[in-house]
Amino acid sequence: MSYDTDLKLFIDGAWQSGEGRDLFPVVNPATAQTIAEVPLATEADLDAALAAAERAYPLWRATDVEKRSAILKKAGALLKERAESIGRLLTQEQGKPFAEAKSEVLGAAQMFDWYAEEIKRDYGRVLVRPTGSRSIVVHQPVGVVATFTPWNFPIYLLAKKVAAALAAGCSVISKPPEETPGCTGAVAKALDDAGLPKGVFQLVHGVPDMVSRHLIGSPIVRKVSFTGSVPVGKHLMKIAADGVKRLTLELGGHAPVLIFDDCDLEKTLDMVVPQKFRNAGQVCVSPTRFYVQDGIYDRFVQGFADRTDKVVMGNGMDDATRMGPLANARRPDAIDSLVRDAEAKGARILSGGQRGNDGFFFQPTLLADVPLEADIMSNEPFGPVAVARPFKDFDEAIEQANRLPFGLAAFAFTENGRRANLLGDAIEAGMIGINSFAISGADTPFGGVKDSGFGSEGGKEGLETYQVVKAIHQA
Length: 475
Prior knowledge:
With 475 residues, the protein is α/β, with parallel strands linked by helices.
């Protein structure tokens, strides 16, 4: 299938080509072949984006909520109409199976739909005061926003930030990943075609460090939202501190999964294996550290291995494929290093454990009896590897779940209602799924604790992060 799109920057309502700019190769991870080149923003481009966002902000802020809502709803409708073509771009750029790619586009559309309605419900409040005086609390947009998003869910994560910021009345400069410019550019086109006024949204690709320093260092930007690694998030936090910029940071995790001996074992296995290898494990909330009660441990790892062996790996455009390649050439090396380290330290490879022959593939893999000393027990693999260890009782399970400095997502499987309540209280994570992986939705706050960051996206909390609170007192 041919890669058919024109890659450009979007600044002040106009599309900017690659003329006079450096170019970055876009690679299909299933074939390792370059399929296009995307222009990289210069400092002059970033200055133009900042100036445009600054000019547009007071006009967009003053735009009636109903009109803002209508534009967001139209953008969502266009994404739904174009889901097939955008999904194909996403699969070619990022590798995930087409069904997953199309689902991601529809999820992005849902974000625009939801925030188009939620902004209508953004109520302030009136405080009780003596007759003749009044105090009110109102929400107002924070100002110009800079967003930074990764390659694993390039459309959905972009939409999650942009929909909420635009609904709140902010103007936005977004830097999506250079690896996936076609599908993210399609979001900008949907907003433009929906009638968003020029300058309200800009999309720029570029050298990450230069772009982040330039945008975050500008006094024009008042809010930064970043999804990515812990080290980069801490780096951006230091840059933002100089300007006292508000931050939302979603910095990944290493999700524990607690499997208790009273669970429905076959049903649990049927749920956890597809979830583990969704997007080739390149998911910040991917279930990875499987702690299994010792009485069912052997049956669990055997059932997991049997199902893993049946996962079809291949090009995401093939209908039979259930797991695509990793996103870039660096990822198979990183995964292989973690697997070899675990094996050398005593882990058993029950399924997979090898690279693919072409493209950036690594087999879906299960490691059993993994010692705590193995690097993979402390470092998120962000790939198609599950690790398993037995535990004896509730206290040991909680100790292992909370052992790391991360706290984004966690999961547990049990049929005991009292235990489920205790798990919800005891696990240190921003999101917990009990007998479920449905922890992310347009109406649901998404965020972590500890080194996994702070702030929420999604839900009313996601709108609030792009707002300031003002109290007005009248005597």
